[in-house]
Amino acid sequence: MTEENSKWKQSYDDALDFVEENDALSAEDISRMMADGETRALAGELLDCRQAMQREQSHRAPDAGDEWKKFAARHLSRGTAQLPPRQRSHKPMIIGAITGIAATLLCVLAFSWMRQIENSRLPEGYLVYEAKDAPQSITLMDGDDEVTDFEYLEQDKNAKDPQSGTATRHTLDYTQHSTLHAPHSIQLLTVPTGKDIEVILADGTKVFLNADSRLEYPSKFEGTQRTVRLHGEAYFDVTKDSSRPFVVETERTQTTVHGTKFNITSYDSQPTKITLIEGKVAVKDLRSGRVEQLVPGDNVSVAEGGEMTKTAVDIDGYVYWQEGFFYFDDQPLSEIMQSLGRWYNVSVVFANRKAMDYRFHFLCDRNGDIDHAITLLNRMKKLSVTRQGNTVVVK
Q: Where are the domains of the chain?
């Protein structure tokens, strides 16, 4: 065996060791392995298996087992016949007989280890948003569990409408029969970080779905009411129908209208907020049964513990996001930074706990990048915001 192949074999063995025997390795072992560039590269390619697994779970083409075979074909041809068998049971993997299940287990273990390393590198402080690792594309699942990936429909952020000159957004229109995947079926639309989409439901209601959100709805409304379910944030422009109320359900609330405009925010570990722009709505707290009637400018907030609070707000902040802007009026900095983290898919850490409660007026174009937003925040001269790779730190 040549010296080059011998060195590569050691790197390959180390990569398999930390994937298969993560719990048995000491901190010194891991540091030694990660100091070797070849080992790090092999570990990174093992993560390709994880990405294949994610795509497979989303009904996307590549197979996790196939990804492993590609990995083996690229690297094990560098002298496989000269590699002595290991004392454990790696030979079946080396000759490419590994199953898709085994490859999936390797991917999960490797990803778990890499996430521990990544998290340990986050600056000390209070993490208010953590960047997502899932594939960043809009997907639609219909009643037959058929998944459509809308990545190919995504328009360039710099695309402009030829008449208005404003940025364009893709629209999914259920009033056009050609877009219906299955008649009278439940649809699940999932939007990742950094993207948004407009949906025109079968009754003509327009829904602007914000980043990191899900909307469940029927391809055609039937029965005595029109019901959808939301996780995340959406702006609703509901088509009037006095005989059939429109109902939006979240984890904590039920909002009932007949025809109006309103915004709902319902993310994990945050209060659910309903803000009325026009008309009238009734908001029910599902935990206590309490109902609040809203008029334009009212905002109802339902906390995780069930507390329900109604206040008057500036509605601009709940309208501008779907027009392409961040707009916050006297909002806590923690909420502002969570919105930025969600849109740009960056982790946000507060090194200064008190800064989380600072309140600001802030306006920024969402089509700009994270560095532009950071520049505007720093111009306030009340705090220091820096970016370290994919992490934003607030001091």
A: 3-121, 139-319, 322-394
The backbone torsions φ and ψ at residue 224, rounded to the nearest 5 degrees and listed phi first, read: -90, -10
Question: Distance between CA 23 and CA 125 in Å, rounded?
Answer: 27
Tokens 């790197």 belong to 11
Question: What does CATH list as the number for 139-319?
Answer: 2.60.120.1440
pTM comes to: 0.67
Q: What is the pLDDT of residues 57-76, one digit of tens each?
A: 444 444 444 544 554 554 44
Task: Give the gyration radius of the chain's Cα atoms.
Answer: 25
DSSP string, 292-352: EEE-TTEEEEE-TT--EEEEE--GGGGTGGGGTEEEEEEEEHHHHHHHHHHHHT-EEEESS
Please provide the CATH number assigned to the domain covering 322-394. Answer: 3.55.50.30
User: Could you tell me the CA-to-CA distances from 147 to 56, 61, 210, 229, 275 in Å, in that order?
Assistant: 11, 11, 20, 19, 32
Specify the residue for token string 């960043």. 136
Q: Which helix (H) or strand (E) holds 173?
A: strand 171-173
